[in-house]
Design goal:
Blueprint: H1 3-15, E1 27-31, E2 34-37, E3 42-45, H2 48-51, H3 60-72, H4 83-96, E4 100-104, H5 107-126, E5 132-136, H6 145-149, H7 154-157, E6 167-170, H8 175-179, E7 186-192, E8 194-195, E9 201-202, H9 205-218, E10 221-225, H10 240-243, E11 249-252, E12 263-267, H11 269-272, H12 289-304, H13 307-328, E13 332-338, E14 341-346, H14 351-359, E15 362-363, E16 365-366, E17 371-374, H15 382-397
Parallel strand pairs: 3-15, 5-6, 5-7, 7-10, 10-11
Antiparallel strand pairs: 1-2, 2-3, 4-12, 8-9, 11-12, 13-14, 14-17, 16-17
Helix pairs in contact: 3-12, 4-12, 13-15, 14-15
The chain binds pyridoxal-5'-phosphate.
Residues 106-108, 111, 140-142, 192, 196-197, 225, 227-228, 253-254 line the site of pyridoxal-5'-phosphate (PLP).
């Protein structure tokens, strides 16, 4: 590492709040599936800014669309209409079959909005103010108070108690555990279609179908958090489309703008017509013209560049390669995931493996302490997978 980079890192540690243990690298620019640090060293990127940069870095058309929008107007206000946001909402409706969209600036905010919509929906039905929400253990929904309250990881919550009230936790893929928590005050069940931060755990189809039936029977809202697993990452535009189980509300962010901070929650007309209304919710930036332009371009490029096909093909290939690794090393317990959202669950902490990979020019990330997570740009090729496996294998051989 150059003196210059060391200095940047020292300056960062002196100026930024210590909320992250950062890897020792200062990233500077990107191109395709590669990132470059300030010393000019090249890295193969299997993180994509945590499932954000789906299209790869420095995509010419995407960059040009943003530049063109910057030259027109970046921000107006939600008190006025703007064309990019209108078009972006239409893209989400078309891709998801949902009916109404609210744009936010982040994933956590999308979750906040979804929770508010669910409570309001129930409130309008019976006027009560003690409704409950069921969330899953090991889930992750964000760091703001509402989102944190439904995050099933006590370690993230403890120091910030009390959380918002009336949240109950159940076990993913254990329908009985959900039934134990349901009562006449339950207004929503929230879960990630594929748990990301919690360790790459897909919900199973039977579980989702039973949840859907339960929610229909009792008029409980099913909220699916698609912030990490949505936008093509599992090979369908949204992960729930694989199971044919449609949520009442869903949340999006991460790859939705491919780097421009934008999230959204979308709902069916049933919820849209009977929940949040004028004055109930708002945001200054959410859905501004720059964010709208990014979302529109992302959807356009997903089609034009056949992103879903690539995810299905290369995702299967990655899955096979990871399965082989899992069989070759004692300390790898399992390879799991779908498409280009995958994990290697290990019996040991993976921090050292990831640091060594970084030194060798490969960017990986963990999910929890023992899981190596693979969330590359969705444009990666089989050759990129081979290169990643080659470097990772070196790192694994150096372990133990
Ligand atoms: C990242 C993530 C969030 C939070 O998104 P932010 O943009 O960081 O607020 C919420 N839910 C899931 C499933 C996520 O992966």
């Amino acid at each position: 590492m150059s003196e210059q980079m060391k200095q940047y890192i020292d300056e960062a540690e002196a100026a930024l709040l210590h909320t992250y243990n950062r890897y020792q690298v200062v990233l500077d620019h990107g191109d395709g599936v590669h990132l470059y640090d300030t010393d000019g060293k090249r890295y193969l990127d299997f993180v994509a800014g945590i499932a954000v940069f789906a299209l790869g870095y420095n995509n010419r058309e995407y960059n040009d669309a943003l530049k063109a929008q910057i030259d027109k107007v970046i921000h107006t206000s939600n008190y006025y209409y703007n064309v990019p946001a209108i078009e972006a909402a239409k893209c989400i409706k078309k891709a998801s079959g949902m009916d109404r969209v609210f744009f936010t600036n982040s994933g956590a905010e999308a979750v906040e909005g979804a929770l508010k919509a669910a409570r309001k929906y129930a409130y309008l039905k019976d006027g009560r103010t003690d409704h409950e929400i069921i969330a899953m253990n090991h889930s992750f929904h964000g760091r703001t108070f509402g989102a944190l309250s439904v995050t099933g990881n006590p370690h993230y919550r403890e120091a910030f108690e009390p959380m918002i009230g009336n949240i109950r936790f159940a076990e993913l893929n254990d329908f009985d555990s959900v039934m134990e928590q349901v009562n006449d005050r339950t207004c929503a069940v929230i879960l990630e279609t594929v748990q990301g931060e919690g360790g790459i755990h897909p919900a199973d189809g039977e579980f989702l179908k039973k949840l859907r039936a339960l929610c229909d029977e009792r008029d409980i809202l099913l909220i699916l958090d698609e912030i990490q697993c949505g936008m093509g990452r599992t090979g369908t535009m949204f992960a729930w489309q694989r199971y044919g189980v449609k949520p009442d509300i869903m949340t999006m962010a991460k790859a939705l703008g491919c780097g421009v901070p934008v999230g959204a929650f979308a709902m069916t007309e049933k919820v849209g017509a009977h929940s949040l209304t004028s004055g109930d919710h708002g945001t200054t930036y959410g859905g501004n013209p720059l964010a709208g332009a990014a979302v529109c371009k992302v959807f356009e490029l997903f089609e034009k560049e056949h992103i879903l096909e690539n995810v299905n093909r290369v995702g299967d290939y990655l899955g096979e390669k990871l399965e082989k690794l899992a069989q070759s090393y004692d300390f790898i317990e399992e390879s799991r995931g779908i498409g280009l959202l995958r994990g290697l669950a290990c019996s040991i902490p993976v921090g050292d493996i990831i640091s060594r990979a970084l030194e060798k020019g490969l960017i990986l990330i963990n999910a929890g302490s023992n899981i190596i997570r693979f969330v590359p740009p969705l444009v990666i090729s089989e050759g990129d997978v081979d290169e990643m496996i080659r470097i990772l294998t070196e790192c694994l051989d150096e372990t133990v």
